[in-house]
Amino acid sequence: MDFSSLNAVAMIVLLIGAATPILLAAIGELVVEKSGVLNLGVEGMMIIGAVTGFIAATTTGSPMLGFVGGAIGGAVVSMLFAFLTQYLLSNQVATGLALTMFGLGMAALIGRNYNGIKPPRAERLDVPGLSDFPILGELLFSHDPIIYFSIVLVFAVWWFLNRSRAGLVLRACGENHDAAHSLGYNVQLIRFGAIMFGGACAGLGGAYVSLIRVPQWTEGMTAGVGWIALAIVVFASWKPWRVILGAYMFGGITILQLSLQALGISISGAYLSMTPYVVTIVVLVIMSADRKRASLNAPACLGRSFHASH
Amino acid sequence: MLMLEQRPQPSKTMLYLTPVMAVLATMLVGGMLFWAMGIDPFRAIYLLFVDPFVDSYNLSQLFVKASPLILIAMGLSIGFRAGVWNIGAEGQFIIGAICGGAVGLALWGSTGWWILPLMALAAALGGALWGLIPAVLKIKFNANEILVSLMLVYVAGNLLAEMVQGVLRAPDGMGFPESRNLGRNDPTALPDVFPALGIDAGGVVMLILLAMAFFLLQKHALGFQIKLTGDSPRAARFAGVKPGVIIAVCLGISGAAAGLAGMFELTGAAGKLTIDFPLGYGFTAIIVAFLGRLNPVGILLAGVVLAGTYIGGENAQFMLQLPAAAVTVFQGMMLFFLLGFEILINYRVKRMRRAV
Hints:
The complex is a heterodimer. Chain A is built from 13 helices and no strands. Chain A is mostly helical. Chain A has one domain: Orthogonal Bundle (ABC transporter involved in vitamin B12 uptake, BtuC). The longest helix of chain A is centred in the N-terminal third of the chain and has 27 residues, at about 10-35. Chain A is globular. Chain B is mainly alpha-helical. Chain B has one domain (about 40-320): ABC transporter involved in vitamin B12 uptake, BtuC (Orthogonal Bundle). Chain B has 14 helices and 4 strands. Chain B has helices spanning about 10-35, 40-50, 55-80, 90-105, 115-140, 145-165, 200-220, 220-230, 235-240, 245-270, 280-290, 295-320, 325-340, 345; strands spanning about 1-5, 190-195, 200, 345-350. In chain B, the strands form 2 sheets. Chain B has a two-stranded antiparallel sheet. Chain B is globular, with a radius of gyration of 22 Å. Classes of the chains: A mainly alpha, B mainly alpha. At the A-B interface, helix 4, helix 10 and helix 12 of A face helix 5, helix 6, helix 11 and helix 13 of B.
C-alpha cells in the first residue's frame, strides 16, 4: 500500500471541512444545554437546515443566502421544540426525538424535487498574498468563510457565557431555574431564545453539509452528524474551546477513515465506516467515567422542565 | 389571558383521551398539509386512517406491519417506564436479524421444527447483548445510554452491510449483496396463523409477550420496581432497588424484543437480508410506545394505527402520488401533538383576569 499519496496538508484542509458542521451544531447545543435544556433534535434541525439552505442557495444563486436560509430553517423548526418543552412542559427527551423524526421526514418532503441538482459554489475567502504562502497559506488562509465564522462563533459563545452579564443569567437558568426565576428572570423566554440559537447553529451546520461538504441534496444526508454533535458537547465538558478540539478530532477520524477506504486498505469499508460512531462511544465512556467531574460541569437543571406556579 | 393551573390529581380521562386527540389533530393538520401540496385531503386521510381497516387486502397486511412495531414498542415501553432511554431499537432489530439469519443460513438444507425456535433464540440473545452494551457502559462508566444506543444503530447498519457482502452472502446469488431467501425455504419460513389479519407465528409470539409484559408491569414485583424507578429514583433506591439491575433488565428486555422482531421480519415479510432490510420500525416503535401510553393494551392499539399509516401511505403513494416522506412527517407530527396535549393530564387551562 502506498501511504505517500496521503498529503498531510490536504488532509488537514479536508478535516476542517468535515469538522465544521459538527462544530457549528455542537456549539449551538452547548448554549442550549447551558440554559438547562437538553435538545436531542439536533439531527432533525440539521437536516432541515441542509434542505432549506440548499433551496435558498439554488433559487437565489447565492451560497451566502443559502447559509442564512439554513440557519433560519433550523431556528424555525427548533421553535416547535421550544414551544412544546417550555410552554407545554413536555418531556425534553421525547420531544427531541420527535423533532428528529419530524425533521428527517419534513426535509425529505420539502427537498423531493431538489435531488441531483448542483448548488452554486461557495467561493473560498482568499487573502491576497497570504493564501499563496506554502503550507501555512493553505492551512490557514484558504478556507470558505463559514469555517472562519465557526471559529469566531466559538469565541463569541465563550465570551458571552463567561464574560457577559446576559451569559451569566443564561447559565443561572441552567444551574438553578428556581433561583433565576425568583430573581425576576423569565426562565422560559431565555430558554426559548437559547433553543432558537441552537436551532440556527444546527441549521447552519446542515447547510454546510449540503452546500459545501457534499455538495448536493440527498435524503438523510446528515447521517448521524447531529448525534455526534450531542456527544461532542459531553466530550467538551460544556466548555466552548474544547468543542473545537472534539469536532476537529472527529473530522480527523472521518477523513482518515475515508482516505484509508480510498487507498483500498485490506480492512473492509463497512468496518472503517463504523469507526466515527465507535470512537464516539469510546469518547463518551472516557469522559463520563469520572462521575465527579462530569457532574461538576453539567448544568444542574439539564433536562428538567420549569413551570412557575405563579 | 389563559393560564395553566396544576390539577390536584392527574386526570384519568385526559390520560386516555390525549392519544385520540393527537390522532385527530394529526388528521386535521396533516390534511391541511396535503391540501397545500395539491393532494385531495379527504381521500388521503381516508387512505391513511380508514382504508387500512376496511379493505380486505389491506387487512391481510395489517399485522405484518403492526407485529414488529408492537413487539419493539412493548420492550421500549418497559425501559421508558423506568427512565431508561433505549433509542437504538433499530440497531437491535438489525442484530437480531443477523444472528437469527446466521443460524438459519448455517443450518441451510437441514429440516426440523426446531430450526425456527433456535433462530428466534439466537435473535433474542443477539438483540439483548446488543442492548446490554449501552447498559453496561451506563452502569460501569455512567455513559449516556441515549447516545450510545443510537451510535450502535449506525454500527449495526454497517455490520449488516459487511455481512451481506461477506459471510452471509448467497453463494449462488451472482454476487448480489444479499443473503439466501429464508422466507422461501420451508423450515425457516415463518408459518401463517391468521392470514386474514396478517398474523403469522411471529404475531402470535408478539401477542403472548405482550400479555407477559402486561403481567410484569401490573402484577410482578419487578414491574413495580421498574415503575418506581421511573417515578421516583430516590424512593426506589431507599426501597432497595438496585438501579444497575433495572437498567440492565430494561435494555436487555427491549433489546431481546427488538432482536426477535428483526428475525420475524427476516423470515416473514422480508425473506432475505439486504442492505435495505431495516425499515425504521425501531424508530417508529418509539412513537407507538408513547401513543400507547407505555401500556401494553395501548401499545397494541397504537401499533395498529401506525401500521395503518404505513399501509395507507403505500397505497396513497400509488394512487395519489403522495411522497413517501409524507408518512414520516405524519408520524412525527402525531408524536408532537401527543406530547403537546399531555399537559392536559396534569394541568388545566384556566382563564385568568389580569389583576387591576
